[in-house]
């Protein structure tokens, strides 16, 4: 059984009323706008890489495109296309290879769907190419810590930007998984990323924050972050959470492979919605869409707002 995280800090949300989730309009490239708040949006993962931890990667662009189309058919509101695995211990990939993987997939999905396409990269060159192919936002796992030129590409295209929390690189991030008060430290470090974005000319309204479950966090840290997710409203930015199939779930589920972590993912997704997430990033869209709908309905009724199937559209 996973014990409570000693670095979690005081549980300020105990017995507190559920705070209504704030709505945001996030501007995207190509004059798009992402409306966040009325319901939780689902970001579907499209991995164009042979070494995805979740076992769902594709090396053939046609297969990755088909996967993206299937996720949209299943109900995905956003697609996140990535060409480099950033799991702990992963080997970094050069920008040329990463771009070659994602560009045809993004271009096809932009032309064949009507949902925003995100590129999962921390490299300025890959972001530039993806935005030129029609991507609307950049999902930077490093929170602008790896490539300072990335921010400039976001500014030029007026794209949306997801800033995730991490420490170190994939090869050494667990060595930096040490916290005294985990939620507070992550919030402080995300504020650094927000300030870096602002200094580069990215207005705050373009930014979504992600606490980075599993990145430079041991299982007890990720669980503590989920349990205190409502604290992240202090950043006054919409919140994205990505618990899908991650290894921290095995601390509770046991040593099961990623494909057998969907029920655990469902629990983490429901908690994320109830505690204020605006977007959940998942691999199994069909499996998670019902979880999100029910959790949204519970949340809305707790807030005193009626919620029906019509609100899902």
Brief overview:
With 313 residues, this protein is an alpha/beta fold. It has helices at residues 61-74, 95-112, 124-132, 150-157, 182-199, 219-227, 250-253, 262-274, 285-302, and strands at residues 24-27, 33-36, 41-47, 78-82, 117-120, 137-140, 160-164, 207-210, 240-241, 279-282.
Residues in β-strands, percent: 5-15%
How would you classify the helix and strand content by structural class?
alpha/beta
Order of helices and strands: EEEHEHEHEHEHEHEHHEH
- Give the fraction of residues assigned to helices: 25-40%
User: Going across the major beta sheet, what is the strand order?
Assistant: 8-7-6-5-4-3-10-9
Distance between the termini: 39 Å
What composes the largest sheet? Answer: 8 strands, parallel
Question: Which class in CATH terms?
Answer: Alpha Beta
CATH topology: TIM Barrel
The total tally of domains equals: 1
Alpha-carbon Rg, integer: 18 Å
CATH architecture: Alpha-Beta Barrel
Supply the CATH superfamily name: Dihydropteroate synthase-like
Shape: globular
Mean pLDDT: 90
Number of strands: 10
What's the number of helices? 9
Q: Which residue ranges are poorly predicted, with pLDDT under 50 across at least 5 consecutive positions? A: 10-15
Model description:
- The protein has one domain (24-307): Alpha-Beta Barrel (TIM Barrel), CATH 3.20.20.
- Strand 6, helix 4 (150-157) and strand 7 form a beta-alpha-beta unit.
- The radius of gyration is 18 Å and the shape is globular.
- Helix 1 crosses helix 2, helix 3 runs parallel beside helix 4 and helix 8 (262-274) runs parallel beside helix 9 (285-302).
- By secondary structure, the chain is an alpha/beta fold.
- Helix content is 35%, strand content 14%.
- The strands form 2 sheets. An 8-stranded parallel beta sheet has the order 8-7-6-5-4-3-10-9. Strands 1-2 form a two-stranded antiparallel ribbon.
- The protein has helices at residues 61-74, 95-112, 124-132, 150-157, 182-199, 219-227, 250-253, 262-274, 285-302, and strands spanning 24-27, 33-36, 41-47, 78-82, 117-120, 137-140, 160-164, 207-210, 240-241, 279-282.
- It has 9 helices and 10 strands.
- The model is unreliable at 10-15 (pLDDT under 50).
């Amino acid at each position: 059984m996973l014990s409570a995280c000693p670095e979690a800090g005081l549980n300020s949300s105990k017995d507190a009323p559920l705070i209504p989730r704030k709505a945001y309009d996030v501007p995207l490239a190509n004059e798009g706008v992402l409306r966040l708040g009325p319901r939780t949006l689902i970001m579907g993962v499209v991995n164009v890489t042979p070494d995805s931890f979740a076992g769902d990667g594709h090396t053939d662009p046609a297969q990755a495109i088909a996967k993206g189309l299937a996720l949209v058919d299943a109900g995905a509101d956003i697609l996140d296309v990535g060409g480099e695995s950033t799991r702990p211990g992963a080997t970094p990939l050069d920008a040329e290879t990463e771009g070659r993987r994602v560009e045809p997939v993004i271009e096809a999905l932009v032309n064949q769907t009507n949902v925003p396409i995100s590129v999962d990269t921390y490299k300025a060159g890959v972001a530039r190419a993806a935005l030129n192919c029609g991507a609307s936002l950049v999902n930077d796992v490093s929170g602008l810590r790896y490539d300072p030129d990335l921010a400039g590409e976001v500014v030029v295209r007026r794209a949306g930007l997801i800033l995730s929390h991490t420490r170190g690189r994939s090869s050494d991030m667990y060595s930096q998984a040490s916290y005294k008060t985990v939620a507070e430290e992550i919030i402080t470090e995300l504020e650094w990323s927000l300030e870096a974005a602002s200094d580069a000319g990215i207005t705050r309204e373009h930014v979504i924050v992600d606490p980075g479950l599993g990145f430079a966090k041991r299982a007890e840290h990720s669980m503590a972050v989920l349990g205190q997710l409502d604290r992240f409203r202090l950043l006054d930015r919409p919140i994205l959470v990505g618990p899908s199939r991650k290894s921290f779930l095995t601390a509770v589920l046991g040593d099961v492979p990623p494909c057998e972590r969907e029920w655990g993912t469902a629990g983490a997704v429901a908690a994320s919605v109830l505690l204020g997430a605006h977007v959940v990033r998942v691999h199994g869209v069909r499996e998670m869409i019902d979880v999100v709908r029910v959790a949204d309905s519970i949340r809305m009724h707790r807030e005193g707002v009626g919620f029906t199937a019509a609100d899902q559209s």
